[in-house]
# Entry
Amino acid sequence: MNNTDLVSIKLVSGEEIVCQVVDVVDSSYRSIIIRDPLKVEYKQQRRNEDIKYNLVPWILFTNTREFEINATKILGVSKIENKELLERYLAQFRKLIEPAEDLKELLERIYRDYDAEKTLE
# Structure
């Protein structure tokens, strides 16, 4: 499994998260490092009784993309090959990344304009 593979991890807490596995901490598999985890929230539709789900941030207020999980807290891990889920996962991160890129471009433009004004003075 490479670090671009998406996996589903079922935790002993009952949570299911979708993420990338980056690394195994040591050869005894005591813990794993995951990247960009999203929690799966299930909701039942009343009309057709299909079970739908949402992907939400696993940890809401964090500045890191990587987390270490102790292996004793994991019930199971499964590689995800469902195209719909892969697309939803990637779309969730595009929503987070694209606004940051827009802000970065805006700030760069402001600084360029500011520097240009300073050189004219």
Summary: Residues 83-120 form the longest helix (38 residues). The helical segments are 83-120.
